[in-house]
Design brief:
The chain is of the alpha+beta class. It has 4 helices and 13 strands. β3 and β4 form a beta hairpin. The radius of gyration is 34 Å and the shape is extended. 20% of the residues are buried. About 4% of the residues have low confidence.
Length: 301
């Protein structure tokens, strides 16, 4: 009986289908071209800034054609203490004017991006090349790198993903330096500190409090003044201003709807300028009228 069971277990093990590698949804076959290098599907895939043909200014020809595959996921952050997400590669280097195709594979069950900043805006909308995939999935896009030596930021722009480690740098030519806080490449600007324990932190705070100079409050004489009716906080002018503000509020809300802060400020300055010009014009006319009438009333000699 035992032999039969053993044989049955062995047959079941060897006859079981092999465990398949994780399947990735391929967004490339579903993307719809919306123009201006913007491709998108309804399954969470997006390419922005696609450019496979137009040369950036300063590039006479494509120097070389390259393809890279970038993996993104939680497991690639395990080698960076305190990080949550990461790319499998943190630094890239290519010749100026390279035609680069990026195959981006998101291995997590969340949304990730491979976003490159600082590109020329006349060719790449908002200066950006952007791959986005809701995983597990794969998406590809192509761009032509500008000329010159420059270091470009590559990161995931989903909230806190870059801060948690999903950040890299891409150098064109020799680059123009290193970016801060690239995992495994450059030091963190604000590195996490896990060395101090709670008792040590409490002792440090107590020592700093003891060392701090004591601040002795000094008596300040309070002047005694008689508040006149015109010094009242709520004066007639204030009431009139509040009433005018309440009356103008609906008009201003409609006028400023959809405008940014800078546009609102510019609009207000234009109004002030027009008001000042109107006052100057009225004063000039008044002075001219006074001078003219004065000349008319003077007795002739």
């Amino acid at each position: 009986m035992v032999k039969l069971l053993s044989v049955g277990v062995l047959i079941a093990l060897f006859s079981a289908p092999p465990v398949m590698a994780q399947d990735y949804e391929d967004h490339d076959s579903m993307l719809m071209d919306h123009g201006d290098g913007h491709l998108m599907d309804m399954a969470g895939g997006m390419v922005m800034g696609q450019n496979a043909d137009t040369l950036p200014g300063g590039c006479d020809r494509i120097s070389e054609t390259k393809e890279i595959t970038v993996h993104a996921g939680h497991k690639y952050a395990e080698k960076f203490p305190g990080r949550m997400f990461a790319f499998d590669t943190q630094e890239f280097n290519f010749k100026p004017c390279t035609k680069l195709t990026v195959h981006f594979i998101n291995e997590d069950n969340v949304r990730h991006q491979w976003m490159m900043h600082g590109l020329p805006k006349y060719l790449y909308p908002k200066g950006m090349f952007h791959l986005e995939a809701t995983g597990p999935s794969k998406i590809s896009g192509t761009l032509i790198l500008p000329p010159g030596d420059k270091t470009y930021l590559v990161h995931c722009d989903i909230a806190q993903h870059m801060e948690k480690g999903m950040k890299a740098q891409l150098k064109v030519g020799k680059g123009d330096g290193d970016l801060p806080s690239i995992p495994g490449v450059t030091a963190y600007v604000e590195a996490d500190d896990y060395k101090a324990t709670l008792p040590e932190l409490a002792a440090r705070a107590e020592a700093e409090a003891v060392a701090a100079p004591a601040i002795v409050p000094t008596a300040v004489p309070v002047p005694t003044t008689t508040v006149q009716p015109e010094d009242s906080v709520i004066s007639g002018v204030t009431v009139i201003g509040l009433a005018l503000g309440l009356l103008a509020a609906p008009f201003l809300a409609r006028k400023f709807k959809g405008l940014s802060v800078s546009e609102v400020v510019a609009y207000v300055f234009d109004l002030l300028r027009a008001f000042i010009e109107l006052v100057v014009s009225l004063v000039s006319r008044l002075i001219k009228w006074v001078v003219t009438n004065k000349n008319k009333t003077l007795p002739e000699k």
